[in-house]
Design a protein that fits this description.
By secondary structure, the protein is α+β, with helices and mostly antiparallel strands. It contains two helices and four strands, in the order E-H-E-H-E-E. It starts with a strand and ends with a strand.
Length: 102
């Protein structure tokens, strides 16, 4: 299962954690978890993530949030800096790949 680029967007369309890269990473991961749950998967099924950040100097904040979420079974991951995301308030976007046995 592939979860497309996911941001800290809340159900009402607002962005969580304005100015806080770690909070945005946590919300993006929560959004990924919700998508996985809808198809009977969990964060434990994730085997790869890709993190896009607008400021690589804040990598530790994002990595810490990622590590908290995936502590039990860390997936292969990469983090790259991008010039911008679709909304200038967004600091982090995360993609995930999960393997789910059917």
């Amino acid at each position: 299962m592939l979860v497309a680029g996911t941001t800290a967007t809340l159900p009402d369309g607002e962005i969580a954690g304005l100015g806080d890269a770690a909070a945005q990473a946590r919300q993006a991961i929560a959004n990924i978890e919700a998508a996985l749950t809808r198809v009977g998967a969990t964060l434990g099924d994730v085997v790869r993530t890709r993190m896009y950040v607008t400021d690589i100097t804040r990598w530790e904040e994002v990595a810490r949030a990622h590590g908290e979420a995936f502590a039990a079974a860390p997936p292969v991951t990469s983090m790259v800096q991008v010039a911008a995301l679709i909304d200038p308030r967004m600091l982090v976007e995360i993609e995930a790949e999960a393997v789910v046995e059917r």
